[in-house]
Amino acid sequence: MALKRVTKREEFSYLLKYSKEMGYGHLLPGLHCWLLIVTVIGFNMIQLVMFCSMEWNSQIMEGLNPYQKLVASLFQVTNARHAGESVFDLSTISSAILVLFVVMMYLPPYTTFLPIKDDHENDVKKDDQKSLVECVVFSQLSYLVIFIILICITENESLREDPLNFNVLNITLEVI
Prior knowledge:
Elements: H1 2-7, H2 11-17, H3 30-55, H4 66-82, H5 95-106, H6 132-136, H7 140-154, H8 156-161, H9 168-175
């Protein structure tokens, strides 16, 4: 819509309205873009809070001042989802954070948890449209991941002291 306002050409609004039919599947409407931005920022904030709470006083952040810790943590959690680069040695990061990073890598790039209605698909039955509750309610897989992360957090000491008997694979197999 911004291009239409700047250039005063109707073609841009047509492209945006019928983007999938014209082969522009990555061209998203304005509301969808804002929901996607909010979701990505939310995912990054969840990762940042969990990473900082689990690793702030750990050995991997030794020697960094609070500003450097925050910037390095933000870089780590953002790149874990988008680029795969890392600031810290991943072998020394707690297992709960590693599970969280794997889940974030697994999510598709256009993941949003709020319903989006297409204006040109109004002829679809209302039964087929997802409600807000259906979009926010988690699937069975997400409940498993949440419980695996919680177990890794509670068993963090055992995971570090006895990695032979306590590891993420064993916890995952026992939960499932």
